[in-house]
Amino acid sequence: MSLTEFSAYWTEQPSIFVAPAAEKDPQKRAMLVLKWFLTTLKQSYATRNEKLGSEKKPLNPFLGELFLGKWEDEAGTTQLISEQVSHHPPVTAYSIWNSKHGVRLQGYNAQKASFSRTITVKQIGHGLLHIDAYDEDYVFTIPALHIEGLITGSPYVELNKSTYIVSSSGYTSKVDYSGKGWLSGKKNTFTATMYPTGKEKDVIYTVEGQWTDQFVIKDAHKKVVDSYNAKNSPKTTLQVAPIEQQDPLESRRAWSKVAKAIQKGDMDTTAYEKSIIENSQRELRKKEAAEGREWERRFFTRVDSWPYVEKLLKEVPGAGIDADKTNGIWMFDREKARGAGPPFSALSEEMMQKPI
């Protein structure tokens, strides 16, 4: 499985993704955005552990790799575009939207791994959720992580430090992560608070629990107003075009021979098929360098600054865009999407009407 597919974990439960659009109260709306963010953590960082028994290293995407799909359920159609916009450093950009409810998400992220007694991964980048009905934005940061259980042979992910969600409507949410200690605690534990931006002590909502299990949301009077059970909450299946109908740059088609060889345990064929992709990419980079150009991204454009997002991120201690670490700031480009051609012409035209 390629890292470009990981963008789909933001929206495996479309009804939770679009729920804030139906809420008229801005405080409750911000709380529902926080709830959505928390529900994505299990899919993003622990689902692979359940399917395969332990953490597995994903395939490293090549520059220009694409992953497209959609979810169809009671929330309507929710669509996804994910593109590898940089290889050095590796950066994945994504755009997810539900036109029926007017909810749009875009973002990009890179990972920087380091090794000591364990594997630590710093995630660089951010996401922007937009709700059309209220012309409202939510900027969020991405958690750092490390791998536990390497010594016992059962590795799993723990999230580190804090992440923030800052809204244009004047609310901030802070999520603090902790894990199982030597003597006490449970793995994948977190606490979160929501408060008026700049007034961290004036807590409106608190959330406590485990992001791989259950959590409860309480108001300022300690009354439970919502809850979530990650183990029992159903996911909507992502629909992806048959491999033979995919563009040659789409992940599952591009990596199909490698994936089949890995599943068979045929490491010789795996190495051979992987080398074909890698050598092809090297030749493309040499040709581009000789011609004085670079690869043209199909759905995203690099910009030097994003003042609006930078303004919201000022509310986050020590946060910044760090464009130098992601080879630029990557924004979804609706004009490029319009001209992408088949098999992408089936993408909803409604997506293009209101840029984030």
Condensed summary:
This protein has helices spanning 14-18, 26-45, 47-52, 251-254, 256-264, 267-290, 307-313, 334-338; strands at residues 66-73, 76-87, 90-98, 103-115, 119-131, 136-141, 144-148, 156-160, 162-167, 171-178, 189-196, 205-210, 214-219, 224-229, 300-303, 329-332.
Please provide a written account of the structure:
This protein has 356 residues and is α+β, with helices and mostly antiparallel strands. 22% of the residues lie in helices and 33% in strands. It has helices at 14-18, 26-45, 47-52, 251-254, 256-264, 267-290, 307-313, 334-338; strands spanning 66-73, 76-87, 90-98, 103-115, 119-131, 136-141, 144-148, 156-160, 162-167, 171-178, 189-196, 205-210, 214-219, 224-229, 300-303, 329-332. Strands 1, 2, 3, 4, 5, 6, 7, 8, 9, 10, 11, 12, 13 and 14 form a 14-stranded antiparallel sheet that branches. Helix 5 (256-264) packs antiparallel against helix 6. The longest helix is centred in the last third of the chain and has 24 residues, at 267-290. The two termini are 29 Å apart. The mean pLDDT is 89.
